[in-house]
Design a protein that fits this description.
- The complex is a heterodimer.
- The two termini of chain A are 38 Å apart.
- Chain A is mostly helical.
- Chain A has helices at 2-20, 25-38, 44-50, 53-71, 74-85, 90-108, 110-128, 133-148, 155-163, 168-194, 202-209, 220-238, 240-243, 247-262, 267-274, 277-295, 298-310, 314-331, 334-351, 359-372, 381-392, 399-425.
- Chain A has one domain.
- Helices cover 79% and strands 0% of the residues of chain A.
- In chain A, helix 8 runs antiparallel to helix 21.
- By secondary structure, chain B is an alpha/beta fold.
- Chain B contains 14 helices and 11 strands.
- Chain B is elongated and about 70 Å long.
- In chain B, strand 5 and strand 6 form a beta hairpin.
- In chain B, the strands form 3 sheets. In chain B, strands 1, 2, 3, 4, 5 and 6 form a 6-stranded mixed sheet that branches. In chain B, strands 7-11-10 form a 3-stranded antiparallel sheet.
- Chain B folds into 2 domains: 3-153, Mannitol-specific EII, Chain A (3-Layer(aba) Sandwich), CATH 3.40.930; 162-297, CBS-domain (Roll).
- The chains are: A mainly alpha, B alpha/beta.
- The interface between A and B is medium-sized, with 25 and 14 residues.
Chain lengths: 426, 299
């Protein structure tokens, strides 16, 4: 009991530091993790084996793949081509960019997508002489919706996929449909919200149409190789259960192959600049911290509490998880939240006799955390990154202004997911 | 080592006539050839002096011209000089004292130290006047001896920097900064306050960056953009923005006592070809990589 309180205290201090960002979140997670070992709550071997190396190496592999993919210029090409297809009309650009952002996020993750597409968007709106702010907010929303669509989209899904035996195909069958439905409804909402008020002169439109986006594809050969390897990786992930190969091995194989073919002369550059070690070590710290809560029995206590509250009924538990994680993720980083929730759901599966199929709980968690990230400006990393880029370019997006828009989309998406879960699983 | 020890009173002239630099060099070369046995002929030495002169300028702002030739197998350092009644223009500098130095190919360090001693002398108007007053070379050697002018063992950056460089204040408008940069053909200007205290520096890239927003820097391939309005219209914004908004404040600086190797290493490490020289918080000079190339490497 005493150990549980100590572990919980370290957990709470660490999470407060992560949420408030008083110190770097990776530093907070690592300090918390090793404090648990120092205080003897966890033995070092226990702490190290708590780290889900499948997640860690999967992330590193994906970062390697993405570093080569984004070098091909394909995504910038898509963005500019889209803006041209919209013939420079702001509302169409916004809707097309929303869809492109969602699609790209499903494969590259929301943060990378935002880092590639927002600078292009800023360029386009500068040329069109319109405010980029509504575009940026809707693109962030799209990135979080897109990230929810696949197992490789957003970190919460990667962690859930690794902790359970749910496959890439399971994610595709269960999460892609609600993500698509949400995207469609969100585009309708954009039309309702922004259909008036954005005007662009013909001259400025002409500037945009003069872009030579074909120049962006520097080497067709490199693009073909990168897309080929990406395709192989997706096939590998789809056949994961048949092949019996774990996801980390698949993504690392793809990443290392691309590194060897396309970037072998700048391996050190890729490893220092394109692999986000801060995120990697943040995850490692989190896994250790959550393990201490499992070991000291706090997670079991929490899970029992949830089961008692919902009386162990599957439908109620699912919806509770969806909305709780939606609300929580709106305010705290969704990765630490998911890391802590996974053992809770595992335990619920064990104790709640009435729940025969635990999978809807996982889908609720995935949808809730990914989509809840849109709830406020601080809900997901992509939001913070996008607002940061905007700020560097002279556009201050205030918490209130962001949240006013994004919360509407979040509410819409959580309502859609509620119906989806009720209709599909119960 | 005393500088006087390097001087030969027979090779010191006080030139009353108005001559051009080439004729003065010719006179000095003839003097050197008369009193010393050289590994090359006199016309060949003159050819080398002219060739060196074409490679890079040898005149310094304090009005001293130092033509210099390195000879294979000379194994000595020969100095001939001429004080000119009528200063001769060389580029933008009026040269009133020509000191020709002939050294061995391997002795660039001694040469640099002599140059540094000569430069220091040339910046002392009283001493220069005293030297001009002398009737012959013997008198000049005596004055140099009396003043105890030393040839230092090591050259420091303070000896070869451009002293009291142009500087701007943080309130300087960018339009004025760009005028200074293009008129003076410099790509870095130190920033100081009204008391001459060093605050930072501003380079031509800081200036151009005003027209290139942050988001463009995040797009790693811009070859699809044929033109970009803010960059082309940069000059319209330059009448409102000031140096203080774009200057660098974290750039490394050097003390005038810093050695040449320290300076070169700093330049390479930080990819800077310009370094401000700061002494007790005050800007005292600027050194450029080209200065080092001209004054140290290609000597």
């Amino acid at each position: 009991m005493y150990l549980m309180i100590l572990a919980l205290a370290i957990f709470i201090i660490t999470y407060v530091l992560i949420i408030t960002e008083w110190i770097n979140k990776m530093l907070a997670a690592m300090i918390g993790g090793f404090a648990l070992i120092l205080t003897g709550i966890l033995q070092q071997p226990e702490a190290f084996s708590a780290v889900d190396w499948n997640v860690i190496f999967f992330l590193i592999g994906m970062m390697l793949v993405i570093s080569v993919l984004k070098d091909t210029g394909l995504f910038m090409y898509m963005a500019i081509k889209t803006a041209k297809l919209a013939r420079g009309k702001p509302l169409l650009i916004m809707i097309y960019m929303f869809v492109i952002t969602a699609v790209v996020s499903a494969f590259l993750g929301s943060v990378t997508t935002i880092m590639i597409l927002v600078p292009i968007l800023l360029l386009i709106t500068e040329e069109l002489k319109i405010s980029p702010v509504p575009f940026i907010i809707t693109m962030v929303v799209a990135s979080n919706i897109g990230g929810a669509a696949t197992m490789i989209g957003d970190p919460p899904n990667i962690i859930i996929g690794s902790a359970t035996n749910l496959t890439f195909i399971d994610f595709l069958l269960n999460l892609t449909p609600p993500a698509i439905i949400t995207t469609v409804f969100s585009c309708g909402l954009i039309w309702l919200m922004y259909r008036k008020g954005m005007r662009v002169s013909t001259e400025n439109r002409a500037r945009l149409l003069s872009y030579k986006e074909d120049n962006l594809i520097k080497s067709r050969k490199k693009l073909a190789i990168a897309l080929g390897v990406l395709f192989l990786m997706l096939v590998g992930l789809a056949l994961q259960s048949v092949l019996g190969i774990q996801t980390a091995t698949i993504s690392m194989s793809a990443g290392l192959l691309l590194l060897a073919i396309s970037s072998r002369k700048k391996v050190e550059h890729v490893l220092t600049n394109d692999v986000d070690w801060v995120t990697i070590f943040f995850f490692i710290g989190l896994f250790i911290i959550v393990e201490s809560l499992v070991k000291t029995g706090f997670i079991n206590m929490l899970a029992n509490g949830v089961v008692e509250l919902t009386q162990g009924r599957a439908k109620e538990t699912s919806l509770a998880i969806l909305w709780l994680s939606g609300v929580f993720s709106a305010f705290i980083d969704n990765v630490p939240f998911v890391a802590a929730m996974i053992p809770v759901i595992e335990h619920i599966g064990e104790v709640a006799k009435q729940i025969t199929d635990i999978n809807p709980l996982w889908w609720s968690l995935a949808l809730g955390t990914c989509l809840g990230g849109n709830g406020t400006l601080i809900g997901a990393s992509a939001n913070i990154v996008a607002v940061g880029i905007a700020k560097h370019n002279g556009y201050h997006i205030r918490f209130r202004d962001f949240t006013k828009v994004s919360a509407v989309f979040t509410l819409l998406s959580l309502v859609i997911c509620t119906f989806y879960i009720l209709l599909r699983y119960f | 080592m005393q500088l006087a020890g390097f001087l030969d009173s027979r090779m010191i002239l006080h030139e009353q006539r108005a001559l051009d630099l080439d004729t003065i060099y010719q006179e000095l070369v003839e003097l050197i050839c008369r009193y010393h046995k050289l590994p090359v002929s006199c016309p060949e030495l003159m050819r080398l002096v002219r060739q060196r002169e074409e490679q890079s300028r040898t005149a310094y702002p304090s009005g001293i011209g130092i033509p210099h030739v390195r000879l294979e197998g000379l194994d000595d350092t020969l100095i001939a000089m001429s004080f000119l009644q009528d200063p001769v223009p060389s580029e933008e500098i009026k040269v009133s004292w020509v000191v020709m130095i002939i050294t061995d190919k391997s002795s660039s360090n001694t040469y640099l130290n002599i140059v540094s001693a000569l430069l220091k002398m040339s910046r002392d108007p009283e001493l220069m006047e005293e030297l001009r007053q002398q009737n012959d070379g013997h008198g000049v050697v005596q004055v140099v001896k009396q003043h105890g002018i030393e040839v230092k063992k090591e050259v420091c950056i303070g000896d070869i920097m451009t002293p009291s460089p142009i500087s701007v204040s943080p309130d300087t408008l960018l339009s004025k900064l760009s005028l200074i940069m293009s008129n003076k053909e410099i790509s870095m200007v130190p920033v100081t306050d009204e008391k001459g205290r060093y605050l930072g520096e501003v380079n031509v890239l800081n200036l151009l960056k005003v027209g290139v927003p942050d988001y463009l820097m995040m797009i790693d391939n811009l070859n699809f953009l044929l033109s970009f309005e803010p960059l082309e219209h940069l000059f319209e914004t330059m009448d409102v923005a000031t140096v203080g908004e774009i200057m660098e404040t974290e750039e490394p600086v050097l003390h005038p006592k810093a050695s040449i190797v320290e300076t070169v290493a700093l330049m390479i490490r930080h990819r800077k070809s310009f370094v401000s020289i700061v002494d007790e918080g005050k800007l005292v000079g600027v050194i450029t990589a080209t200065d080092i190339l001209h004054k140290v490497i290609t000597v």
